[in-house]
Amino acid sequence: MSLRILVWNENVHETRGDATVLGHYPHGIHTAIADGLRELLPDARVETATLADPEHGLSQERLDDTDVLLWWGHIAHDEVSDEVVDRVQRSVQAGMGLVVLHSGHFAKPFIRLLGTTCSLGWRNDGDQERVWTVDPGHPIAADVPPRFTIPAQEVYSEYFDIPKPDDVIFLSTFAGGEVFRSGVTFTRGRGRIFYFSPGDQEYPVYHQPEVRRVLANGARWVAPVNGRALPEVVALQRGWLEEDAGR
Amino acid sequence: MSLRILVWNENVHETRGDATVLGHYPHGIHTAIADGLRELLPDARVETATLADPEHGLSQERLDDTDVLLWWGHIAHDEVSDEVVDRVQRSVQAGMGLVVLHSGHFAKPFIRLLGTTCSLGWRNDGDQERVWTVDPGHPIAADVPPRFTIPAQEVYSEYFDIPKPDDVIFLSTFAGGEVFRSGVTFTRGRGRIFYFSPGDQEYPVYHQPEVRRVLANGARWVAPVNGRALPEVVALQRGWLEEDAGR
Amino acid sequence: MSLRILVWNENVHETRGDATVLGHYPHGIHTAIADGLRELLPDARVETATLADPEHGLSQERLDDTDVLLWWGHIAHDEVSDEVVDRVQRSVQAGMGLVVLHSGHFAKPFIRLLGTTCSLGWRNDGDQERVWTVDPGHPIAADVPPRFTIPAQEVYSEYFDIPKPDDVIFLSTFAGGEVFRSGVTFTRGRGRIFYFSPGDQEYPVYHQPEVRRVLANGARWVAPVNGRALPEVVALQRGWLEEDAGR
Amino acid sequence: MSLRILVWNENVHETRGDATVLGHYPHGIHTAIADGLRELLPDARVETATLADPEHGLSQERLDDTDVLLWWGHIAHDEVSDEVVDRVQRSVQAGMGLVVLHSGHFAKPFIRLLGTTCSLGWRNDGDQERVWTVDPGHPIAADVPPRFTIPAQEVYSEYFDIPKPDDVIFLSTFAGGEVFRSGVTFTRGRGRIFYFSPGDQEYPVYHQPEVRRVLANGARWVAPVNGRALPEVVALQRGWLEEDAGR
User: Fold this and answer.
1) In sequence order, what are the beta bridge partners of B172?
2) Which InterPro entries match (chains A, B, C, D) (predicted)?
3) Does D137 touch chain B (CB under 8 A)?
């Protein structure tokens, strides 16, 4: 079965008519992200959903039919219903992959899954962002250069309040000397999470080939490889060992 | 300033008059734990609090005056108010140490901080528990033998649904062949968390010297070493580097 | 290009005519391992090499043509030439995957790559080994049951002196209450390492389906995904950023 | 017993009469480092040793009497005898703490303990180095500001070929946009290792208060807390469990 990817975007800057955002993304950030994934993962099924859809486009049925969810949110985190957040959290714990983008560091599902404040430093002056690969053998770094430049981007900077990541794949620096752990992974239950910070709505970041490559690699990497099952309490039985040994 | 420790116990088995529990712990589990800490950390200030206290004994003022909170809960997790859970979570993120014991794997603050289901396998047949030290250089393992036996204890078994721990210090096995990551650590913000699984209410585990040693080591290890501050969003200023360089 | 796998075995028990070993593995342990890989990875090219081959069958040319090297050794670790060990170490650092089996915990390349003594506890009484999956979302755990039993196997036990693993995927227990981190991963440079402890020569472990599944998963997982390149010192140039930004 | 610290320096730039180095460190880099440690750890015993001393000042007796060894080397790594390197490696595995400084990333004991090439990018143009704390709750970060500036320093840059660190405490950036994991920890056996990159011989880095604070914290943190013992193979006995249970 091909990879089933769902790109979620709050789509609020766009529907409010923000000219800068619409200039870069006339059909919404989600569409640009989805286009990039389709280009690099031609066998995947790539769909999109937005906040304004019924149940934000994230019904249980939809999540059950999704291997990988990408999440872009910024100014409407609070409008995401707690019921949907519960659902997303459980889906990840059961094995659905999650790729959280940029300002999604404050998205409800991300904060819930990580348990930290996810706060950070920021500054928006259109700085160049330098992205450095610090785990070159990691699948998410495949075909990504040792370093690449994003011409203009919002600054995200340490201290980034996240748990110790499983993997730190990318570090970013900015003209002001700031540094950020810009590509990190986590595991929650059977689910894998990849956070990638480049992608502010004011800059055309998701059109850049290196960024598209990272997102495609990330989507493939978080995809479940061992089925879907929510971890549950198991009442063990005395003597199971002996039976088991009778195999 | 001496270490300020607060031992929290739901204290429900005891107040309901459970004869087994009261047989082992006539003054409550919290009192036995506190006694062990006082014995091994004579310079510490050790206090106790229970669910029935106003605000469960966990007012903001009290938490601000606490370096390390130990948590024992079992049948009344749901009775802990969400407001107090928020408070505990923020206190840990700001640097307060947290030691979670046994059935506290399902305590609200633990689940909130970890982001997983924290489910596990269990069986209660009074098995011996073998505790193995697998990180002998870790401070929590100081003066703990390479392996020790708890004569009778409830079985907790894998799969234990927790994020990848920062440290795995102890592994436990049981007569039925079960295995459990019984001593693990996590970091959330500035706060350190130590989970230690031995300690079911039906067995006198907290009177055992090796267990008391582990708890004392754990309390010392999670204690904050760099002040208390909740991580916050920081708006950086262009040019801070240049000013900074003028030092 | 299909996965290029090389199974290395010292092949000394076999050539000395050890009846027990030959009873289980008439064509050598390497042949049984290779058969298992061919069965589960039909598209892979699976070859074998042994200590007695010229350069132990591990010439630079051969290693350059290998994606994944599996290593079984026991009584002849010291007969492996340091030159070949250097070569294997560099190949792993450059990206070649390495799967180390059972008594290979004391193989020269493993010790060199890990930097620890790799010592452990052991006992050989034909105990049942219980293998528990503790990272069910990991690709190496795909299609492996939550727990399975190896009917008879040498006991390996903690303390196992290895660096903190990147992933702990399997834990094993034995009838005597022992526990062992039996499936663990490490990264060195661009290369991935998977150590799996079941597989003593006196028991027919490599014929067991679950074990074959783990080895096939492990081989696939350690395979390089981002080319082969030995990390090197790079003399940076002032001003590279500005040029880079001219993209 | 007070902390027993030994500061080792190859002391070659100094004895060759390098005017820049002697300008900053008239009594050698080791003396400046030792002075800083004495200032901040007044209860510690701080001694020094250099390459030219008999056995490089690192006899087995001396190492057995040392809790923490700091290592500064640059142009004479190859002159350190393999016998001494073996000794240092075993001492760390047994519990001695090791703090490796700057160009010591290529010191024989460090490479041996880590198992990687430890190569990196570099450029020496006197850039400012910004050191960011990314693990503010870590004891090595105690009383270290969230970020501080080293006015002039050699650039070290990613990709730094080290295993995944246990902790990443500091990240550094440079005027050219480079980034480096400048403060990282590892565990090998019972021993803890802290690597800290600032400290090129051409700049007076070890006189700077923040750097002195980091080194003092690092020395305290790597110090053994659970005795000294080289991990060894242990032959277990059938039935030990039953005896053990007779406690």
Assistant:
1) B131, B180
2) Class_I_gatase-like (IPR029062), ThuA-like (IPR029010), Trehalose_catabolism_ThuA_prok (IPR009381)
3) yes
A182-222 confidence digits (pLDDT tens):
999 999 999 999 999 999 999 999 999 999 999 999 999 99
In chain A the domains, ranked by start, together with CATH numbers, are 4-245 (3.40.50.880)
Cβ(D230)–Cβ(D91) under 8 Å?
no
Q: How many residues does chain B have?
A: 247
Rounded distance between C-alpha atoms, residue A176 and residue A157, angstroms: 10
Q: Give the gap in angstroms from C-alpha D133 to the nearest C-alpha of chain A.
A: 7
H helices then E strands: how many in chain C? 8, 10
Q: Per the confidence metrics, is the pTM higher than 0.80?
A: yes
Q: What are the tokens at D193? A: 């290792």
> In chain A, what residues touch C210 (CB-CB under 8 Å)?
none
Q: Of the candidates D116, D232, D236, which has its C-beta nearest C93's C-beta?
A: D116
Q: Where are the alpha helices (DSSP H) in chain A?
A: 12-15, 19-24, 29-40, 60-64, 82-94, 108-114, 209-222, 240-245
Distance to chain B for A242, nearest Cα, Å: 9
Distance CA D232, CA D94 (A): 10
Contact C147, C132 (CB under 8 A): yes
Of C42, D192, A140, D34, the closest CA to residue B135 belongs to D192
Non-local (6+) Cβ contacts of B23 within 8 A are none
Residue B147 phi, psi dihedral angles, 5° rounding? -150, 150
Q: Out of C166, C177, C241, name the one closest to residue D176 (CB).
A: C241
Say what percent of chain C tops pLDDT 70.
96
Helices (H), chain C: 12-15, 19-24, 29-40, 60-64, 82-94, 108-114, 209-222, 240-245
> CB D137 to CB B192 under 8 A?
yes
Structure tokens at A69: 């969810």
Q: Where are the beta strands (DSSP E) in B179-225?
A: 179-188, 191-196
Query: Which chain A residues contact residue D146 at CB under 8 A?
Result: 159
Distance in angstroms (rounded) separating the CA atoms of residues B11 and B14: 5
How far is residue D138's CA from residue D10's CA, in Å, rounded to a whole number? Answer: 30
Which residue type sits at B217?
Answer: N
Contact C98, D211 (CB under 8 A): no
CA gap B215, B41 in Å, rounded: 10
Cα distance between residue C107 and residue C199, in whole Å: 15
Residues from chain A contacting residue B117 (CB–CB below 8 Å):
93, 189, 230-232
pLDDT digits (tens, 9 = 90+) for B80-111: 999 999 999 999 999 999 999 999 999 999 99
- Partner-chain contact D188 C116, CB within 8 Å: yes
Tell me what percent of the residues of chain C surpass a pLDDT of 90.
94
Give yes or no for D137 touching A (CB within 8 A): no
